Amino acid sequence: MGRGLNISVAHRQNRGLLLRMILQNPRISRAKLAEMTHLTPASVSNITGALIKERYIQEIGTLDEIRSIGRRSIGLAIRNGHYLTVAVHMQRHQITIGLGHLDGSVTHLTHLAVSDHPFPEELAQNIGAVIKDLVRERRESHIVGIGVGASGIVDTAAGTIYASLAYDWQHVAWAALLSRETGLSVVMDNNARGMALAEMLFGGSTQSSWLVFLFAGQGIGLGVLADGQVFGGGNGIGGELGHITINWKGEACWCGNVGCLETYLNQAHIESLLHVGDGETIKTALQRSYQRGTYYDIIDVVATALVAVVNMYNPQVIVLGGWIADVWPLMEDEVQQQVKRRTRFWNEPALEIRSSSFGSEVGIHGANAVALGKWVYGLGGRWEQTPADDGLDAPEETF
Ligand SMILES: [Zn+2]
């Protein structure tokens, strides 16, 4: 374990908080930072001084705001370029790998095709080869580590993919495998949790710390941020909305439960309901059956999922990804009305429901957010003890 353990938790949190404020308020002054965070001006000055030296942030000229002693104050902004993450988004049939930047942007994307039942060691080697090439070309930068967003049940603390329907995996020590291939530290989480973090850090909900991301693909993913922190439960299963029963006389689900929401809301089921043909998308098929029987069936099940989310987590905002985001403009009014009616006692102040700020790229932004959340922005409370965290990562802590 590295030097990081000597840094007090409070100090780490203050540093992360200041970095988040600077990320979300470019050109902010030190005085404004102190006002917004309630840290003393001396602390702000100390920590930002160290962050400039370590090249996380930079000064960007003077602001119009005049300080009381008459000097113009200097703006601060996140500095891209020196620190990079490697973002890895794992989904059925495709893995996306890219370089993540401190401001949330992701560049140099590579897509790898994945077979139906990939061997973990072989897949880790293939991903490792791509990563080694990416990193080799970036010798002037400091690679903070690898952030992984994976579908399925991810035990973040153990660095294990506990169960993945997409890859037919159980108990795969994925963080250790990827770390062995690359020599880099690895932090991983369920992909929907990464997506939620990306929306709060870099997306359209930077003011909302109670946020839920609902991803609907072949499976249903739910990422919950409770007061700005990732909610995962005891070992990563917390928030598995897709496996709550909505019909106790329903069909058996792969998870062992019956009548799971996921069996009604997964993409393949919706496609069969809508008789999606060759070359057609759920969106065009839904347009075809707009405001007819099947349309209302789909509205009902989407609203049922959202009502469950409201009742369980009372979020300020629900962000949608996957096929629901694609068709959201077609169903928004009907679903909103139904959710309002079915949560009428606690629906004030108005809940915001919207589609993702990152469109179909949300997964790779989520993987970057998992890495930056842990190693830069101080949101990695539950990731602190991951076994792959061997100290290689520890950005310089000089105070
Ligand atoms: Zn299930």
Coarse morphology: globular
Helix residue percentage: 25-40%
Structural class, by secondary structure, is alpha/beta
Overall tally of structural domains = 3
Ends apart, CA distance between termini: 18 Å
Largest sheet: 5 strands, mixed
* Text of the CATH class of the largest domain: Alpha Beta
Radius of gyration: 22 Å
Spatial order of the strands in the main sheet? 5-4-3-6-10
| CATH-level-4 superfamily name of the largest domain | ATPase, nucleotide binding domain
What would a concise description of this structure say?
By secondary structure, the chain is an alpha/beta fold.
What does it look like?
- Strands 5-4-3-6-10 form a 5-stranded mixed sheet, sandwiched between helices. A 5-stranded mixed sheet has the order 13-12-11-14-15, sandwiched between helices. Strands 7-8-9 form a 3-stranded antiparallel sheet, covered by helices on one side.
- The protein has 3 domains: 3-78, Orthogonal Bundle (Arc Repressor Mutant, subunit A), CATH 1.10.10.10; 83-195 and 362-383, Nucleotidyltransferase, domain 5 (2-Layer Sandwich), CATH 3.30.420.40; 205-356, ATPase, nucleotide binding domain (Nucleotidyltransferase, domain 5, 2-Layer Sandwich), CATH 3.30.420.40.
- It starts with 8 loop residues before the first helix and ends in a 24-residue tail after the last helix.
- By secondary structure, it is of the alpha/beta class.
- Helix content is 37%, strand content 24%.
Map the helices and strands:
Blueprint: H1 9-24, H2 30-37, H3 41-53, E1 57-66, E2 72-78, E3 83-91, E4 94-101, E5 106-113, H4 120-136, E6 142-150, E7 153-155, E8 160-164, E9 169-172, H5 174-182, E10 186-190, H6 191-201, E11 211-216, E12 220-226, E13 229-231, H7 261-265, H8 267-273, H9 282-288, H10 293-313, E14 317-322, H11 323-342, E15 352-355, H12 362-375
Parallel strand pairs: 3-6, 6-10, 11-14, 14-15
Antiparallel strand pairs: 1-2, 3-4, 4-5, 7-8, 8-9, 11-12, 12-13
This protein binds zinc ion.
